[in-house]
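My hope is that you will study the protein record below before we discuss the fold together.
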Amino acid sequence: MLRLFLFSLFLTYASHAIAQDVAAPKPEQAAKVIDLRTLKLPTETFQPANRSLAGLFFKATCTPKAAYEFLQKQMIERGWKETNQFSSPTSASATFAKEGYHVSFFAMKGTDKKFGEHITIQMTNMGNLDSRTLPVPEKSKAIISGPMSTHYICETMTQDDGKKLMRDKLIALGWEPYGKAADAQFFKKDGIRLEMYVTKSPSQQNKTAVRYASRLMSIEVPAPVEATLVNYSDSPASLMVVVKGTVDEQAAYYTKGLSKLGWKPVTEKPVQKQINLEQVFQRGNEEMTVTYQQVKTDVHVKATLTKSGE
């Protein structure tokens, strides 16, 4: 449901402004524009909020409109401009823009046995990447063109060829492969996670469609290019990786990779914690825990931000 909502925002927020290539930010740089952990929550919030730098998720008993107005006021006071807004008795949505960044808001009314009637609220920092600056498929036309998403229809390129060709173009521009799921491929550059979908479009005579979308990550964690699984989450801020090899090899990889990002290991090597090996890294007043588990010839790695710098 959230993905469909975000896609609808891309449709309504399409812009004809000239795209400018902006360097991908580090999460700590984006935090200077906004850190969603600093927003106040409605008094009707009844469940501890899941907070991260780039994401906010919570449940409340107020109306969708009331939640929207409560958070909208804070965003406007912080200098954000509202670019899109919708509300009804059962839902509310909005987008806010500032200094090239876009933040989405979504609230939906629902009910279940555990919580009864309530609303679910989510805010996401979509980052400052302008999708119109990304590679354009050959012999294609843009049917949606805006900073938050661009959608191309290709006249001659097949879906299989498109997946490889567009992937190679992004890698050539410095985008690191960061996992995949079905027809989606994910990439990372500093603190931006890019989604690229290469699909067949039934509404366009089954021609190949290429769509870009992106969002800011709350933590920047590297992933081995040979990993068979890469799964980033902002709830909580974490990265899961499955890669062939040994724990010692992956511990060396993450110690080196995180050190380049300013993280220092508390212990030189991982220590045994029940069935996992665990290694803690610190950067200022932040703390990240990386666990390693050997499963036959694979290593399962999970890096979690266990103490934020808020």
User: Anything to note?
Assistant: The first helix runs from residue 2 to 12.
